[in-house]
Amino acid sequence: MDFAFSDEQQMLRDSTRRFIAERCGFEQRQRIRASDAGWSRDVWSQLAELGLLAIAIPEAHGGLDVGAVGTMLVANAVGEGLLLEPFWASAVLATRVLVELGDEAQRARWLPALAAGDIVAVLAHDEDGDGATATPRRTTAARSGDGWQLDGAKALVYHAPAADLLLVSANAEGATAVFVVPADATGLTLRAYRSVDDQCAADVALDGVIVPADARLAGDAAGLQRALDFALAALCAEAFGAMDRVLAATIEYSRQRVQFGQPIGRLQALQHRMTEMLMHLEQARSLSYLAATGCTDPDADARAATLSAAKALMGQSARYIGQQAVQLHGGMGMTDELAVSHWFKRLLAFELRAGTTDAHLARYRQQLRAD
Amino acid sequence: MDLNFSPQDEAFRAEVRQFLAERLPADIRARIAAGDHSQTRDDIVRWQAILHERGWAAPAWPVEFGGTGWSKTRQYIFECECALGDAPAQLAFGIKMIGPVLMRFGSAAQQQQFLPRILTGADWWCQGYSEPGAGSDLASLKMRAVRDGDHYVLDGQKVWNTLGQFADWIFCLVRTDPAAKPQKGISFILVDMRTPGIRVQPTRLLDGSHEVNEIWFDGVRVPVENLVGSENEGWTYAKYLLGHERTNIAGIGAARRELRRLKRAAAATRRDGVALLADPLFATRIAQVEIELKALEITNLRVIFAEEANHAPGPEASILKIRGTEIMQRISELQVELLGPRALAFAANDPATRTTAAYLNQRKLSIFGGSNEIQRNIIAHMMLGL
Hints:
A: Butyryl-Coa Dehydrogenase, subunit A, domain 1
């Protein structure tokens, strides 16, 4: 039993925190948000220089391979700083899909470019927008000459408008497969929009998209699930970072804000509310640790139970902490000017993404057994 | 980061399991496995003697006082395994409360007189803290102790005394200086329950049980050598007692045992032809509490890890207390809801209705040991800096 982080792991988190504070603090973030793209290529290049886009890539392919716990620590800082760049979508999820499913040639072709920040990739997997798609059905891949023809649709793909490559999951003659599709492929159309937490996203339509044979990643559904599980632990860590900061901001606000001649933090009703928030936070931290250490478990069923437990509990923590942070900030919590409303919206998005709280509770309860 | 126990600690767990399988009397195991939480003197004393024979009488005591010298991790594993193995909880008042106080603040004579008899279970200890006007605000206690030659003379009343009807000794907080500020005039004294002038009167609880008492002290003469430490310093020792030995404050083992019982009952109970463990609504509620318990287990391990790394124990123990008792109460609620209206046919002390009795009884969890509201005050002041 060891809950300590190594010096390297702590340095990784600290340097990510420092970078975000210096280069894309809240004021800069507001400007990036207002831009057409909604994210910054400059910030992206700098993340690459720091090595943060290579953390989930094996060393053999130019990566740092910091593991799930190292990824958790970077994701903590990303959530704290409300990063708008496609860190999770590209550097974690899409990267892990290529690591898990790519053959040697496919990995060698794409991973170094991802690590360098030269390209952005996203996984287009979810079909109903509920984050619960296990097996693609509406999106199909049929053989076409030497290659494949893709038809179908994907919903709510975070950072798809930023992507150079879409990794599209499809039903390929009865098997789940993932295809690498360039963003400018003929027949690929994006309906782009912003998510409630100000990240760019899109619904994706595939209409007779033709890709060559080597666009099909070698791995199967099990590999895709491993990548999704690794990324879900990272998403939980991102949410934890946001919860941690929004509670700290709330405590600080309750110390500063004077009403009835005293800081409102002296009022027991509010103290007990913040205590409840803290307990939610600490329970969330525990399951975020569990998710990070359990997301690489070779036993897929054990992994599913662990991650559903974490997502269900953390979704509820996110809702409670986010809502109460706004409440305790009073009118100021309703404004766009304070970070608190942005953490709140990031936490709302977390709650609804990658399987809702209810979906994960359902998955968890289905494996309950009397022992 | 590694959430697993070391192979050595896992081997220790196996050793504890084997010991429980071999030495826990079958009748005691059966009672607890069936959800009987009534604490009988006989069960606790028998089990303590068996633990003592094995050298495990006091998991948290240092070796020089006859304890095990175990790490906090091993103490945690031991308590979990005992609970999961349907062993009775050890009586806390001797092992976890007065024992550590005597080791730290007691005289050599007190240590020699009392500690060995706590280990063997020869002495049954109880606690004299709360009074009618001193509950959460314990420092406002009024029971007097007036020096008279070689004795203190005690007059007053203690309430919410747990299992004092079996007790040989009681440790009391008494007021020795009524003029001083509330925390300053309190002393800590040990009283033989056979002393003339002590009257123990049961306080009947909502579940019909006789678990707590009022104790009246009327001119009770206690030798001065039974004072612990210095006169008027009792509050310091009381705080030490409250802050000590909170490794198991979350009650993870007992909660896991009761959750296991709940799941077994839910698998065996059908509603409209469907086992409740497969009923979406009921199973989701079980899932919720199981997930919350899993999280608390890790939170507890984090606290133990911090303590073993020599970080001062902080208000995290209050988080463990609040969430642990909430979880235990939620499990007992679900056990009652599983029965539905059948839980209403109730007779005190009837084994058939012990689920209802346990539910009623376990409302105490969020009240005693510093109510959950007091714990929230502690967290707010210490952790939030407010």
